[in-house]
Amino acid sequence: MELNTQHIKDLYAIEQTRFEQTHQKSKAKWEAGRKNFLYGGPSHWMRRWVGGWPAYISKDSDNGYGVKLTDIDGNTYVDFCLGDSGGMYGHGHPKVVEAMVRQASIASTMMLPNEDAEWVGAELERRFGLPYWTFTTSATDANRACIRLARMVTGRKKVLVFSGCYHGTVEEAHVELNENGDVQMRNGIYHNDFPHAELSAVVEFNDIPALEAALRTGDVACVLAEPMMTNFGMIEPITGFHDALRQLTRETGTLLIIDETHTFSNGYGGYTAEHGLEPDFFVVGKSIAGGIPAAVFGATQSVAERIWQALPKVPPTVRQSAHAGFGGTLAGNALTVSVMKTVLSEVLTKENFAQMVALASELAQGVKDTIAAHGLPWHVMQVGARVEILFSPDAPRNAPDVRAGRNGDLDTLLHLYLLNRGVLITPFHNMMLMSPGTTSEDVKKHHTAFAQFAAEVTAK
Ligand code: PMP
């Protein structure tokens, strides 16, 4: 089924007018924000919501626990974006709120731990398998720390990433391969005079021969990878990819960092636990501390021993002990740790993940039914509690497949169309995420809006 491109543009114009009419107060706030914010809002990427400005969420609205939001124009939404995973615990969980208030009323940050740390450390090992953990204030920071440690213990300098990846603002990962297989900066990002040719290696995901060639050079300190790619369209590993990745990294003395900041949505122990991966370092961030900026990274016994050799555990009486070169004053503060305990023990539990995955299946099935009803050459992917719609008939194997299947106008229209019908999806891709507070009724709202979308785009 061929879509009429002019019709898509016409529909977009209608939706844009509708958005303007229903988001006037947000527009005024955004315009006022230009006075004091470099790009209009507290973070530069907030300008990237379709419609031209973001909906400002009302401070007075109280929708209870779940994924409902109300903006200052009175529009209500079901939130499947969930802060691009940061809100996967659901908004306003009473126990999370209670943990925040309880610890904040004692002290949020002190440079001293509180007694919840012991439980959290043990729980991280139970879930993800690695014994030694460190807290940071973001997943970016956690990735940077792992890279630093990997370089320190291997004495090598390169970091290998997969084309189309995103691991936060990690300089080494700002590269991708273009159509000719040449390395270039991703999304036109400024090179910052960073010596990418010297410090980064990049290959296509699922390309085992290219991975092997890059690792056999012997100058790669670590591979930094999501277990399946989530930031460039969802790309699943082909059968045998993870075995090859682990075998080749071991054979070449390269450390493997698995970044589960998004794929934690796979379930209780992330993709790693479900698929029996054996990373040297493990990173997870975003959702684990109830919206307080936080991430953790874990190291295996053997990697930890290499770290202690390079950076010995000296007693505090040795005043000139070496600085680790990573950290963050607020990292692992009592507020973070206590809220993390509540999120891990009461919210992102095995039982709740089961419910989230079931709802994701419900959402994916609704999308599949609509696609089939209209004979559309589209595709839906589900990994755990995460679902993505791709405007191509088949699952992509790598970044070029994703590029080939892209349809910018249709993408933008889908986002705006859903937004205008009270359904929020991640602004940078077509991804939808469930939380323990998401309900079947929320999913039905998506079903209805998506079915309407499919009917309208195929009407002419
Ligand atoms: N790793 C992955 C896989 C991510 O998707 C992201 C952010 N989208 C990050 C790391 C960085 O997270 P943060 O912005 O919280 O540092």
Automatic annotation (TrEMBL):
Its cofactor is pyridoxal 5'-phosphate. Signal peptide: none annotated. It is an enzyme of class 5 (isomerase). One of its GO terms (molecular function) is glutamate-1-semialdehyde 2,1-aminomutase activity. Its EC number is 5.4.3.8. Belongs to the class-III pyridoxal-phosphate-dependent aminotransferase family. This is Glutamate-1-semialdehyde 2,1-aminomutase. It comes from Ephemeroptericola cinctiostellae.
